[in-house]
Fold this sequence. Notes:
Chain A is built from 15 helices and no strands. By secondary structure, chain A is an all-alpha fold. In chain A, helix 12 packs across helix 13. Chain B has eleven helices and ten strands. Chains in contact: A-B, A-C, B-C.
Amino acid sequence: MSAFTHARTSDRIRLLLRRVLPWSAPVLAALGIAAVVAWPDTYLHATAARMFPLALLAVSVCVVTGHAGLPTLGQVAPYAAGAYTTAHLALHGVADAALHLLAAAAAGAMVAALVGVVLARYRGTVVLMLSLAVAELTTITASQWRTVSGGTDGLAGIPAPRLLPGLPPLLDDRAVLLYAAAVAATATAVAMRLLGGNRQLLLSAVRGNEARAAASGHRVTTYLWVVHAGAGAVAGIGGALLIHTHRWITPADVGFTSAALALLAVVIGGTASLPGAVVGAVMVLGVRDVVAVDLPGHAPLLLGALFVAAVYLLPGGLTALPARLRRSLRVLRPPANGPDTTAPHMSRRTS
Amino acid sequence: MSIVRVDADDRVPSRRASGDLDRAHSGGLVATGLRHAYQRLTVLDLDSFTVAPGDRHAIIGPNGAGKSTLLNILAGTTRTRTGTITYNGTVITRRGAGWRGRAGIGRTFQHPAVYPDLTVLDGVRIGGWHHRRHPERTPLELLELVGLTDYADYPAAALSHGHRRMLDLAVALAGQPRVLLLDEPAAGLTDTETGRLLQVLTGLPGWMAIVLVEHHMDVVAAVADWITVLHQGRRHTDGPADTVRADPAVAALYLGHGGDDAARR
Amino acid sequence: MRVDAYLMSAVDGIAYGLLLAIAAAGLTVSFGAGGVLNLAHGTLIALGGYVAAAISTGTWASLAAAVALATVAGAAGGGVLAAATARLRGRRGHLDQALLTLGIALIGADLLTIAFGPDVLRPQLPTALDGTATVAGHRYPVDRLAVLGIAVLIAAAGYVVLHHTRAGRLVWATVDDRAMVAGIGVNPAVVDATVLVAAGALAGVAGALTTPILGVGPGTAETTLLLSLVIVVCGGLGSVPGAVIAAVGVGVVQTVGVIAVPALAPYLLIAAMAVVLLARVSPLQGEVGS
């Protein structure tokens, strides 16, 4: 009898957790940003603001890798398209931030749609292989197309954007941080919203058993292509943020390192969780910025070590951590009446 | 819509009446000249194959006879380099599995195909996606038909083998097929489950064209009105179900090649 | 004179292509057999190159030692990869393996730069190899011809091993049907590991032999990885003859293209790959029928 009530209490706690947990990430993130904004150090503001472009790139990679099931390094292509579009708009006197974001999203979506024509036909590690070529091509293009990119020196002195036509340019570090956080949060929220409901169901089905989905009449490749193009828009917005937070760009910013960093952030965050990707990106960049002080010039070494560590120590990423902890706790403390989580009666609805 | 008539000489001709071909051209499948080879090994070499609305067409034969390959080619999962397939009088040879699924060619898989992360109910909803506004039968009705109502909210990965088979069938039926291709639906089922399967199969609407690949002769006997025996990718025998089942040559074929499979059941 | 320059670089291209083919053969077989996408492949080539450049001091003995040590270093690198990836199997195994090799590649590239510096190195060759030879009225550098000859020898030896030994047939069988190989009592994981070690050795020797032509520097790993992947994809994923043909094409485009249209050379390669991918009749491994 007491075991019974105990089980019901734990069920209630579990239910409560399930309601509260989805909100914990945004609330914690908002608190974190508020703390950073309140901190008097402007260097910290600038450093924090500069994390958001890569965080959005990671979100884009997460959409493609986790939701479409196509592991990719190639989202730097739409990222670069968004960044250079924004840079040139700003250099040609268009200062409206909203216009920048829209144009960058469109450019990113277009580039990703083109790349997706090839990538969406493949699955698994072959996609990774092909997307590596896309990333390389992006770097090569960025360093060779001098009229657009300014060569390896890049473009500097890009004017700051204005939020609204009458307002002063967005130069203050604290304001830039708030702006970047707001754009990144909005873009992530919209992406999550768009990937919810029926679309989530369809993508989950396609990832789970593609042959079955095709036999039921689903246009699998088209679905994945659309998701890939949509993720391109997110990456494009990330590119616009890159310009808005840095106000200069070199081909190295849209290079292989950024692609690998974003993929690493996704692996750390848990491949299908968009907030997880943001957290992963902030963690990776944070570690890099801290360690870079002691080991200048060895970012790749650190990045590689993090990759190895993430693959070995964090299978499934941060989002799988609670479940893994629970399982290892259960190993330590065997349950009294113990059907495990895989038994049907748990009724895990995936939604 | 171009109407294509195909008549081919078979080395072992199908003994179907010529009227059957007309019926197959309106609402059924007609395939000619199907050849499929894996490396240098011929898997399937079939001059013609037809299934018309209302047909209950069983395909039997020892392991490796090309039964699953034929089914995969008809469903569009495997592409042929040769031959022509028409459905409802339209050439569909170059159409993919998705197009054929939407057009009304449904199928189940030899290894029951389910969406591991989705619930049973959601899986059926995905199966009937293109008819979700006006379903003939709602997903819950389909689950009741195959006896999975109690499992509607379970993830498909948690189901037993037999339940997965039934789910695969429910998902295929949710697509409201006019032609239903069943790949060994009774393999691995318990006697009770086989009974349930037979109940579902015999209760399917009379206008539906069904192709049944099966080793389990009881199921074939209960469902099929016509049997094609495949052997090494070619038509071995073809005829009304009773005649073929009584044919000693067919029994010899089974006993000679992979016969243990049939004998055990 | 200008034609001579093209012709010379075409020979370079064929030599370079054959070397890439030797390296890519390992990559394509390990992908075809075990599904391991080895993104550290370029790093192994660079490792071989650096070892060769550091050891070769201009004497014949040091040259032989350089090539041998580069091969051993490559094989050791392959062994590290095999040990690291062996434990990652299961549903997400292949992706985890690829990510792991990516991490190892990043670490390796950085370590190589720490050890050998940021400059492009070239090995000191014996003086006999430093001159030029006249063949059919055209003058070629001797070292290129020597590299070409050795590349042909290795390719031929590789062909014999792959097609006429039990080990080679076992590798093919694993590419074809893993379950079947397990069924005859051979652990496919052992085949995978062996293939990775052999692929590492080939990458090492290819790296050592490439250095006289192109040198070896911080960009070598990335460039050769990309070229190898293009070769593997164009050659048809898992096919060695396809890889060899593609590799010679890539080598020629890379060397002649860099002289003729420097800005467009990378695009030529990627465009060729895109055309191959879009125009293929038979689906590749990992591709889905639409």
